[in-house]
Amino acid sequence: MLYFKTEVLPSMDAGVFLPFEDGKFGAGVFKEMSFLRERTKPVFGINLEGFIWVVDLESAMALTVEETRKRVYR
Questions:
Q1: Quick check: 24 and 62 in contact, CB under 8 A?
Q2: HSE-up of 65 (CA within 13 Å, CB side)?
Q3: Average per-residue pLDDT in the chain?
Q4: Which of 24, 25, 43, 74 has the fewest Cβ atoms within 10 Å of its own Cβ atom?
Q5: DSSP letter string, the chain
Q6: With the CA atoms of 42, 43, 46 and 50 taken in that order, what torsion angle do they form, in degrees rounded to the nearest 10?
Q7: What are the boundaries of each domain within the chain?
Q8: What does the pLDDT look like over 9-42, one tens digit per residue?
Q9: Under a CB-based contact definition with an 8 Å cutoff, are residues 63 and 27 in contact?
């Protein structure tokens, strides 16, 4: 995560993120989204059909690190 916070995210003008099928975002992805939003950068979600929306971080559902690991490494 440190690499993304120091090298990748600071140069981004916006972010587009893919949640899991149930609409929840992984823990690391949510941290990246929050990093961008804190810097007043737009944050978007995208689904598998290509629909893009503005993510409201106040109502977005984020998984814990452990929940994310269980989904990624099942």
A1: yes
A2: 2
A3: 94
A4: 74
A5: -HHIIIIIGGG-S-EEEPPPTTSPBPHHHHHHHHHHHHTT--EEEE-TT--EEE--TTT--B--HHHHHHHHT-
A6: 10
A7: 2-7+15-72
A8: 999 999 999 999 999 999 999 999 999 999 999 9
A9: yes
Q: Is the pLDDT of residue 47 over 90?
A: yes
Rounded CA separation 32/37 (Å): 9
- Provide the b/e sequence for 3-35 (b: ≥16 CB within 10 Å): eeeeeebeeeeebebebeeeebbbbebbbbbeb
10 Å Cβ neighbour count for 70? Answer: 11
